[in-house]
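We modelled the chain as a single entity of 140 amino acids. Its sequence is:
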Amino acid sequence: MTETHWELYSHPADMGIRGFGATREEAFAQAALALTAVITDPAKVQPKTAVAIACREEDDELLLFCWLSALLYEMDTRGMLFSRFEIRAVAGGIEAQAWGEPVEVARHEPAVEVKAATYADLKVRKQSDGTWVAQCIVDV
């Protein structure tokens, strides 16, 4: 089985994010780390403060879209970046904790602002090796 990890992939106008994990929830957490990596090096973000996030969608792809959109909302309204995620499946969706800290421009050196998750290349699936992948294009 492939280890849990994330990656970025190129797209003509925006940026693709992809998370891999042994479970759907791990793949979602890795996709969230990839989202942070579009903005800054996740290793620079200290997991000091927890924020609770709940998303309700029956469809896995819409649930990923909801999760990433909720993270972007929290980043924007709280002025935070996140580097640690715990996600738990619940009936009809997920409940999560995201840990991070307020943005410090000098230390975090944000490269771009992610404006939104999109439906472009939106996929959540279990692969033939049993690992899960969660991906989409984000608007930068």
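As a brief sanity check on the tokenised model: Strands lie at 5-10, 15-21, 49-56, 80-90, 93-102, 116-117, 123-126, 132-139. The chain has one domain: 5-139.
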